[in-house]
Amino acid sequence: MLLDGKNAIIWGGGGAIGGAVARAFAGEGARVHLCGRTQATLDAVADDIRTAGGHAETAVVDALDETQVADHVAQVADHFGSVDIAFDLISVGDVQGTPMVEMSLGDYEQPIRMSVRSFFITSTAAARRMMRQHSGVILAFGGDGGRNPVRHYNIGGFQVALQTVDAMRRQLAAELGGHGIRVVTIHTGGVLETLPRDFPDGDVIAQSIVEPTMLGRAATLQNVGDVAVFLASDKAAPITAASVNITAGAVAD
Q1: If pLDDT is split at 50, 70 and 90, which confidence band does 146 have?
Q2: Residue 151: its pLDDT value, please?
Q3: Cα separation of 96 and 100, whole Å?
Q4: Which of 24, 101, 105, 116 is deepest in the core (most CB within 10 A)?
Q5: In whole angstroms, what is the distance from residue 205 CA to residue 193 CA?
Q6: Higher model confidence: residue 144 or residue 30?
Q7: Residues 17, 21, 24, 30, Cα dihedral to 10°
Q8: C-alpha triplet 35, 40, 45: angle, nearest 5°
Q9: Contact criterion met (CB below 8 Å) for 251 and 147
Q10: Which residues pair with 139 in a beta bridge?
């Protein structure tokens, strides 16, 4: 198993993407520590993992609260011996479907503030523990540092949030590489399964995600989980400071 014996903390572990990644990690032998603000959603993912024979722990933790995150990371490290993988996958409260010129500043900046705050809090808390081990992997999700072509739908501050986190990934990779810690972004270009059925202009957004791809499809939740497993494993040992492109060819590197 690629992640046998590893401890993986996933903030937003009860969500669609967080749950998919958690199931994939557990399937490869990791003990997953699911964090979020709603116990019921965390329990649903944990039950799936345990039913399949995997190991899952849950904790109600607000990824925007420095003290809660630091305390939980310390508990995982002290009780289970290590923090090997950290992945912030919380929902960032993005408001989409409205042109930027018609949005309030609060709606536009909300995903930027939440993304930066949560990634800073979770990644630095995990990194401080990983530095003691001289090993670890911090994963980020969704950004490409500005290479993605501008879409014609209205996504508010969401893309700005993703690109900002991607810039933070580069900085962390440079600062933490000497401590044996890798930092990698998974760039999807959009996962159709995460679009709510009643999402404004959902069909238009789905078409805009798929249309630019070379493969005629978008990455799936299973794809995200599989790639995350590889990047978190020792088989990806030379990969850091990278944005791994699983856009199905929507972005050509």
Answers
A1: very low
A2: 53
A3: 9
A4: 24
A5: 12
A6: 30
A7: -150
A8: 65
A9: yes
A10: 87, 184
Convert the pLDDT of each residue in 65-120 to its tens digit.
999 999 999 999 999 999 999 999 998 767 777 788 888 898 888 899 999 999 99
Handedness of CA 120, 42, 107, 139 (dihedral sign): positive
CA dihedral 134, 20, 193, 87 (to 10 degrees): -20
Q: Tell me if 44 sits within 8 A of 121, measured CB to CB.
A: no
107: its two tokens: 């709606």
Distance separating alpha carbons of residues 169 and 120, to the nearest angstrom = 10
Residue 92 pLDDT: 77
First to last CA, the chain: 30
> If you ran DSSP here, which 8-state letter would residue 148 be given?
S
CATH topology of domain 7-245: Rossmann fold (3.40.50)
Spatial separation of the C-alpha atoms in residues 93 and 110, rounded to whole Å: 7
CA–CA dist 88, 79 (Å, integer): 21
| pLDDT above 50 (res 145) | no
C-beta separation of 12 from 122 below 8 A = no
Helices within 84-216 (DSSP H only): 105-133, 158-176, 202-210
C-alpha distances in Å from residue 236, one per residue of 108, 137, 222: 36, 10, 19
Q: How confident is the model over 27-45, as a mean pLDDT?
A: 98
3-state helix, strand, coil in the chain (%, to 5): 50, 15, 35
State the amino acid at position 147 in one-letter form.
R
Domain layout of the chain by residue ranges: 7-245
